Amino acid sequence: MARIPQSFIDQLLDRTDIVSIIDLRVSLKKTGREYSACCPFHDENTPSFTVSPTKQFYHCFGCGAHGSAISFLMEYDRLEFRDAVDVLAQAAGMELPEEAVEDAPAGPPREPLYDVLRIADRHYQSALRKSDATIAYLKKRGVSGDMAKRYGLGYAADSWDALTGIIGDKPAAARAGMLIERDSGGYFDRFRNRLMFPIRDTRGRTIAFGGRALGDDKAKYLNSPETPLFHKSDQMYGLYEARQAMRDLPRLLVVEGYMDVIALAQHGFPNAVATLGTATTASHLTTLFRHTQEVVFCFDGDTAGTRAARKAMEVSLPVMRGARRVRFMFMPEGEDPDTLLHSDNGTARMQAAIDEARPASEVLLDGLTEGLDLTTPDGRAQLIERARTPINALPPEAFRAELIGELSQLSRLPSADLRELFATNASARPAHDTPATQKPAARETDSARVTPVTRALSLLLADTALAGQVDHARADLADHDNPGARILAEAIDFFANNPNVAVARWLERYRDNRYFSRLQTLAAQSPPGDDDTRADEFVDAVARLSQQRRSRQTLRERYNALLAQQEHGPLDERAAQELKEVLSQLQGSTG
Ligand SMILES: [Zn+2]
């Protein structure tokens, strides 16, 4: 998708007041220079959510939520970035620039794809109304007419060209995964003799289909292939419908199949979603947590179910921030949600299963202690060893503390020792040893160190007028070896040239940067001290960084000089020793 130009985001944030945007949704009270409220992102009775009109930034001291007006809409209204920008633009009376509305020059436009999917959707639904056999099948499966309508169920006839015949833009339909092009030219229908489930994005647009075989086709379920609109590992079936059914989603149930989602909705659980024939990914989880605070996974009670649960646990750990909770529900042997709901007392049994779903900590500890004899020192040592990877994957928050507490009891080691042990191991491990799912958490922990760079950035973001005081150091920082120092140089440059611009506007430039989350955390801080001491500290930190860069510069020059000398003949003992030292200093001090 085409990028929205930075200049447009800049203008938009200039014309937007975060206070009024948030106040429309959460009523704010003025407290000193800031505004506050009870946090909309976690449960609390005393307000720890603050909005700064000068920074144009919100921050919650309770759960750590923070960001710009765009971030707020993404979190609170559960919008994608582009949609959040769209909402703000409408409020500000601005129109998205044409190049952002058009599609990326690299790929063909998407609009025709949505169009053909809309046509297919209507076609399948009207075919269902005329297919007595399919209606009978739905009745047999216990699906009501209401549900068929809410989920837009349809019927793909047992024909090679029922859809092909009514689609004008066949190449677009092929790109949308609905038609298949023949080698000999011409097209045919991908879905034949199937019950059709439209898969919708969070705006309700159909982006793909799932089809269940009605005849004896070997492939019981067939999904649309990956297309420019449809990425299996991001999308969940039923999320749009769940949001339509419930304004607030206290929890989302993750089940395996389309029919499970629909059966649950029909029995009063409209908050179920399903992955689309793939295991749950970190990207699924991130999407789900944008809409709810609690995710309950539903698995079969057999070994395959246990394995799937472990996998889901692994992707959940790195995103367990703030009040987010994950629980696991295991179906009785041989049942799935659909069969359970249609059994005697099905609704009550399902409700009980949800209530009894086990907290992530319990399931995790079960896995960690499995087969260990904790009455022996050896068993307890093995437990600590096994716990290292999952614990280090967790963000340094409540859930991590809770688990360490439990481990402390089981291992008979004090919590403080465990915390230290896990922290040390996290930084001692080489990077290539770290599974992909863990990286964000590990980065978060080690970047939490206070360095001259992070100190200077947090001081500058708290008072952007400081940029004017260190103008001269910009060049030194701009080609510093430390990427943080280069960001600091950009910030100084930005605020020196735009003295009255809010911090949030600068931050938005870094949304796609790997340091974005870290920068947001720094922007949320209010460093202690009065204006003068903070200014001194800032000037001092910047001076130290320039000095650092200059001494590296001197080292590099000396290194080059020694190398040049070496080309004219062997170095004497003293020069050779110096070359070694210069080299080791250059390699050692990249901080
Ligand atoms: Zn909060």
Description:
With 591 residues, the protein is an alpha+beta fold. The chain folds into five domains: 6-101, DNA Primase, Chain A; 111-223, DNA primase DNAg catalytic core, N-terminal domain; 236-340, Dna Topoisomerase Vi A Subunit, Chain: A, domain 2, CATH 3.40.1360; 371-447, no CATH class; 452-585, Orthogonal Bundle (DNAb Helicase, Chain A), CATH 1.10.860. Strands 12-14-13-15-16-17 form a six-stranded mixed β-sheet. Helix 11 (258-266) links the parallel strand 13 (249-255) and strand 14 (272-275). It is globular and about 90 Å long. The chain binds zinc ion. Zinc ion (ZN) binds next to loops.
Search tags:
591 residues; alpha+beta; DNA Primase, Chain A; DNA primase DNAg catalytic core, N-terminal domain; Dna Topoisomerase Vi A Subunit, Chain: A, domain 2; 6-stranded mixed β-sheet; 5-stranded antiparallel β-sheet; 50% helix; binds zinc ion
Summarize the structure.
With 591 residues, this protein is α+β, with helices and mostly antiparallel strands. Helices cover 50% and strands 12% of the residues. The structure holds zinc ion.
User: Taking Cα atoms only, what radius of gyration do you get, to the nearest Å?
Assistant: 29 Å
- Strand % is 5-15%
Q: Count the strands?
A: 17
Count of spatially separate domains: 5
Within the CATH hierarchy, at the fold level, what is the topology of the largest domain?
DNAb Helicase, Chain A
**Which CATH class of the largest domain applies here?**
Mainly Alpha
In DSSP terms (H or I, runs of 4 or more residues), the helix count works out at 27
The CATH architecture of the largest domain: Orthogonal Bundle
Strand order of the largest sheet: 12-14-13-15-16-17
Sum up the overall morphology in one term: globular
